[in-house]
C-alpha cells in the first residue's frame, strides 16, 4: 500500500482503491448525502478532473508569463497614454 498525500492507494490490476483519511471521509459523506454525488466513486473523479483543469490553467498562465518575459522591454513607454488607450478601446468594445 502506498501513501501519497492525503490518500492511501492500493493497486489491484487496472483498478485503484482509494482510502481517504478521516478529514475527507466526512466531506465525502456530506456530499453523498446532499445528493450532489451518489457515492464516493463519483466524488473522486470529479476532484481529479478539477485538479487536472487547475494544472492546465497554471500551464497556460506560466506560458503567458514566459511570452511576456520573452517579448522584451518596451522603449519610450508612457503609462498614462497607454492607460488612456486601453480605456478608449474598452469604451468602443462595450
Chain oligomer state = single chain
In total, the number of strands is 3
Discrete helix count:
3
Mind describing the biggest β-sheet? 3 strands, antiparallel
Q: Return Rg in Å.
A: 23 Å
Strand order of the largest sheet: 1-2-3
- Stretches where pLDDT falls below 50 for ≥5 residues? none
Query: How many distinct domains?
Result: 1
Order of helices and strands: EEEHHH
Structural class by SSE content: alpha+beta
The shape is elongated
- Distance between termini? 57 Å
Explain the overall architecture:
The protein is α+β, with helices and mostly antiparallel strands and 94 residues long. The protein has one domain. Helix content is 62%, strand content 16%. A three-stranded antiparallel beta sheet has the order 1-2-3. The N and C termini lie far apart (57 Å). The model has no long low-confidence stretch (mean pLDDT 83).
Characteristics:
94 residues, alpha+beta, three-stranded antiparallel beta sheet, 3 helices, 62% helix, elongated
SSE layout and pairing:
Blueprint: E1 2-4, E2 7-12, E3 15-20, H1 22-33, H2 40-70, H3 79-93
Antiparallel strand pairs: 1-2, 2-3
Short description:
This protein has 94 residues and is α+β, with helices and mostly antiparallel strands. Helix content is 62%, strand content 16%.
Amino acid at each position: 500500500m502506498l501513501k501519497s498525500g492525503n490518500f492511501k492507494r492500493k493497486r489491484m490490476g487496472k483498478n485503484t482503491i482509494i482510502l481517504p483519511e478521516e478529514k475527507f471521509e466526512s466531506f465525502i459523506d456530506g456530499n453523498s448525502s446532499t445528493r450532489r454525488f451518489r457515492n464516493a466513486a463519483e466524488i473522486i473523479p470529479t476532484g481529479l478532473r478539477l485538479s487536472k483543469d487547475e494544472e492546465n490553467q497554471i500551464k497556460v498562465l506560466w506560458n503567458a508569463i514566459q511570452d511576456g518575459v520573452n517579448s522584451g522591454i518596451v522603449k519610450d513607454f508612457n503609462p498614462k497614454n497607454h492607460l488612456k488607450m486601453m480605456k478608449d478601446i474598452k469604451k468602443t468594445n462595450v
